[in-house]
Amino acid sequence: MKIQEIRERINVFLYGSKERVLSGLKLFNLIVSSSALFILAIYYGYPNESETAAQLLGFVKGTFAFYVLQYITRILYDYNPVQFIRRTWFEAAVMTVLIVEGASDLLTGELLISRLSNAIGFESISDFSTLFIQGYFFTIVVAELIREGSVLPRVRLNPAIIFIMSFLGIITAGTVLLMLPEMTNAPGSMNFLDALFTSTSATCVTGLMVVDTISFFSYKGQVVLLFLIQIGGLNLIAFGSFLVLASKFGLGVRQHEVIEDFVNRDTFNASSGLLGKVLLWCIGIEMIGAFCMFLLWSDSLPNLSNGRTWFYSLFHSVSAFNSAGITLFTGGFSNPAVSSNYGIHWIITALVFFGALGMVAIFDLFGFDRLRERMNQPWKHITFATKIALYFSLGLVGIGAISFWLLEQDGTLAGMSSFGQLTTSVFQSVTRTSGFNTIDIGQIGIPMLFLFIVLMFIGASSSSTGGGIKTSTLSIVLADVWRTVRSLDHVQLFKRTIPEELRSRAYSVLLFFMLGNTIAIFMLCISEQHILSMPDRDILDLIFEEVSAFGTVGLSTGITPMLSGYGKAIVIVSMFVGRVGTLTVAYALSGRLTQTHIKYPEGHTMVG
Prior knowledge:
Elements: H1 3-45, H2 50-77, H3 81-87, H4 89-108, H5 112-119, H6 125-148, H7 159-178, H8 192-203, H9 213-216, H10 219-246, H11 265-269, H12 274-296, H13 306-321, H14 342-357, H15 359-366, H16 368-376, H17 384-407, H18 418-430, H19 446-458, H20 471-486, E1 492-493, E2 496-497, H21 500-527, H22 529-532, H23 539-550, H24 565-580, H25 582-590
Antiparallel strand pairs: 1-2
Helix pairs in contact: 1-2, 1-6, 2-4, 3-4, 7-8, 7-10, 7-25, 8-24, 10-12, 12-13, 12-14, 13-14, 14-18, 15-17, 17-18, 17-19, 19-23, 20-21, 21-23, 21-24, 23-24
């Protein structure tokens, strides 16, 4: 009997139970993954005796055995096992690692990855691998339940609410983790409000901190911050990919527009495989940045092991590319240990710039398919959206750098070499979207401080992790103003006509952003009277703090730890709204989307 015939008989035998078994495995997988994540939180968050720790790790190892078993079961139930393994190649690779690690643990009592990581001086890489594997399977099973579940397809989903709830879920999980005793160096644990503030700041990739990261948080707490930054930065694109999936069973085309910070509609509708591509590019860029930093730390980290040096490199690379601005140095990069390490400054500058440029623009500029297409067909250029992101980003960097160099010659730049002044000017101009600083922001003169407020208000580009009204909004508003001044018939930009829908959207974003900042600043003036009464503080400090929070930037004149409880709550809301997008919040609050085709007679009035 041939192998194919044997396979067909097995398929016939298993057919009757296939749907029931696979559905049960998915549900059980979700329970196992959720339980494992909860166990890991207890294991890493509380001090455990050796016996208790061994029991907890024993449960986690048991989940790995279950993952291997359920994957083998799925292979048996598939009609073409070879094609199934090819389709799920990444999951197959993870299973191979689990089998090898299981054999190593049974034979030697130690994981293979632990021995390898200890050999290169990275003592805790096994912790990362365990968290990654559990998080991976939890994500996979949730995606499968969404795709093939029997409940969600019947529900008309509001993407704005789902998007907001996804961020709230990440922030809540981060808050709980940061409150665990093992996350801090101080006795006890972090209080709820500070943990919520820190989790929101990391998840919304803002970077405002009420505590000193390196001295307050333990290594475990720093790892949690790293995960929050990475997950928060990627959540926007991940949710966009989810919308592509969800649109098959509950979303109308009109509802896609509620995600204002994602990508243009053409790219959105054509990118069902966008999430995987984004993950590969993001991780690749972050790894390159971390490797370059590892080579250039020099004497900045003299007493750290290779493992900790690698962690510093990875942490700052992820924080920079995701525009988070959180550092492991007291005072940021103005710390004497790194204030003159200009090589590190330029790497951070490059990572922040490309992170703020946006993934869609990066794909268009550096994607292999796009590069090959432009080489074979020289008449093809970068897309309209990429031109806006690239040219306006370069223009804003130029304006900020030149202004900083001119205005701060006798201030924060005094005493630096010419190269140091150039590096600092470009660094602070680029990092207007991220919150990194190589000088004390509180010592900057009022003119430059005001210009920083304007630059933070504008922010980064669409499809990036940066905040602000975005360069696309600025470009459309300026093009419309130019049309009005020149009495042109149409709004034009880069030889393209801007449709009325985009102009309305741009002005809505601008109005909501201005209104949100105004309300929050007014509330801060009421709640932070103690800051305004200080001799060296005034309302500009509050304005700077609020615009930085709403624009998810993270720069501060130093008043963040001084905020009252009400002030922290106001800034938390500002960071959250600034991250998910003002129009997204507006759509979520507006209820069900409706369309009307009624047109009233035109009205005329004087303007201006």
